[in-house]
Specification:
The chain has 312 residues and is mainly α. The protein has eleven helices and five strands.
């Protein structure tokens, strides 16, 4: 008979207990749950940032000490569209049957549950990047313009490229070199960006500008490449921290042991656990950005918080 892993309700006590008979090395992964790809290339074929030992230690320290009360703090402090976006994501994964009338259990092999945990944390990481990008767009739209309050449409979409010549030079951040792009291709790219922004603005108007729909609606308007960029920045230190958190919750880093175990939890237990995993992924991106800013400004590096990072 398959041995049962501890239930999710007990999972939220694992952070205060150590596995007996194991040393500190037990938190180091024997095999990692990572994106497909090798070296510094991610699943999207985009080069991720170089691993920073100090950043890795800070992120791993955070996931080793963060407590479940951070979830309740997040519900109080985080923007409403982020909270509701996470809640909708969890509901879509587990269903919307009212728990007071339906008792539903979810059974999974330990290895599959661990992979789900990593995926959900990466979703939280993506939500944080999407929130950064959305706030930047909104701040740009808030700037005053010279077109008046109701400029209306002046031109039809698209242009005629008759006798269009010339090139533009742009610095490629990933390849660290200058790229020569034709003016026609550059205009095409600008028009695609404009259409993406228009779809976002139109969607906001159709939704009545409701805060609870803003973030998910914005994510849905992104082009596939832009959507991939929301997670492509995650470096090896972030993935190591996510792995460390999964091993902490699962109580083991041995994948062979996970394959021979199974879990069975109610949807209420699963929902709370998945919600917490998304909050941790969201927090990892916040800490990553704060670390990079402090390092760039040559400020003292802040230690890993025990709860939610500042600026949530």
């Amino acid at each position: 008979m398959e041995r049962q892993l501890r239930r999710c309700t007990r999972t939220f006590g694992w952070e205060t207990r150590e596995r007996k008979g194991r040393g500190a090395k037990d938190t180091e992964p024997r095999r990692s749950f990572r994106r497909r790809g090798s070296g510094k290339e991610g699943a999207e074929g985009m080069e991720r940032r170089e691993e920073d030992p100090d950043r890795r230690r800070m992120l791993v320290s955070y996931v080793q000490h963060v407590q479940t009360h951070s979830l309740d703090e997040f519900l109080k402090r985080a923007p409403r569209d982020v909270v509701d976006g996470m809640r909708d994501t969890v509901a879509n994964m587990l269903g919307n049957l009212p728990p007071q009338f339906f008792h539903v259990n979810v059974r999974a092999v330990g290895e599959n549950l661990a992979q789900l945990m990593c995926s959900v944390m990466m979703t939280g990481y993506m939500f944080r990047n999407a929130k950064y990008r959305k706030e930047m767009i909104e701040s740009t739209h808030a700037q005053p313009t010279d077109h008046g309050s109701n400029p209306g449409k002046k031109y039809a979409p698209g242009i005629q490229r008759k006798d269009l010549q010339g090139h533009v030079l742009r610095w490629n951040l990933e390849q660290e070199k200058v790229e020569n792009t034709s003016a026609s291709d550059y205009i095409d790219e600008l028009e695609r960006d404009i259409q993406t922004l228009k779809r976002y603005v139109d969607g906001m108007a159709k939704a009545g500008n409701k805060p609870e729909h803003n973030l998910l609606l914005y994510i849905k308007t992104l082009e596939p490449q832009n959507l991939q960029e929301l997670t492509a920045s995650a470096g090896e230190d972030v993935l190591d921290a996510m792995n460390a958190f999964v091993y902490r919750l699962m109580g083991t880093s041995d994948l062979e042991e996970m394959k021979s175990t199974s879990t069975e939890n109610t949807t209420v237990e699963m929902a709370r656990m998945l919600y917490w995993l998304m909050v941790v992924g969201y927090s990892l991106r916040t800490l990553e950005v704060r670390y990079d800013m402090e390092r760039a400004m040559e400020l003292p590096i802040s230690p890993a918080p025990r709860g939610l990072p500042p600026g949530m």
